[in-house]
Design brief:
Structural class: alpha+beta
Largest sheet: 8 strands, mixed
CATH architecture: Roll
Helix content: 10-25%
CATH topology: SH3 type barrels
CATH class: Mainly Beta
Number of helices: 4
Strand content: 25-35%
Number of domains: 1
Radius of gyration: 15 Å
Length: about 160
């Protein structure tokens, strides 16, 4: 197990719940999202450039190449934990989707749009899987959720693990 991981991440790794980004797009194809994966649909103004991200930041992850060579599209994630001992820094996030039909699944929690998270639509946070995101995979930060929400997402993650084991 990697050094410097939080207890939350140690448990997530132990149960095989930390996934690479390519897995996020299998269940939540970007074509079904309101932004269709296009940066122009997301940005209302020029984005600020960040090199450091924090827990609670909502980030837009850029295109990347799957292991099979196919190109994945952009998607939103909320950073729920970090490993600052790794170089480059590893962020760990949960996928955000505007597909509210998936709210029927107990792993998905409603995230209502507001002027802090800067989402254009009410969305869901998929709390049953954690995705590893490197800083260079992040295009920009659009907003933030508070620590109370992060703890709610982690609690949901633990509850799902407990129910499945």
């Amino acid at each position: 197990m990697k050094e410097g991981l939080s207890d939350f991440l140690k448990i997530a790794y132990k149960y095989g719940k930390v996934k690479d980004l390519e897995e996020a797009f299998k269940e939540f194809p970007v074509e079904e999202e309101w932004h269709k994966g296009k940066v122009d649909n997301v940005l209302r103004e020029d984005s600020e450039s960040y090199s450091n991200y924090e827990i609670g930041d909502i980030v837009f992850v850029k295109e990347y190449t799957y292991t099979n060579g196919k190109i994945g599209n952009n998607h939103f994630f909320v950073i729920i934990d970090q490993n600052n001992t790794a170089v480059p820094i590893e962020n760990f996030g949960m996928l955000i989707s505007s597909n509210l039909e998936k709210l029927k699944f107990n792993a998905n929690i409603l995230l209502e749009k507001d002027n802090v998270n800067n989402l254009n639509k009410d969305s869901i946070v998929k709390t049953d899987v954690v995705y590893k995101i490197l800083n260079e995979q992040i295009l920009f930060k659009i907003g933030k959720v508070d620590n109370e929400k992060i703890e709610e997402y982690k609690k949901s993650f633990y509850d799902i693990l407990k129910d499945n084991n």
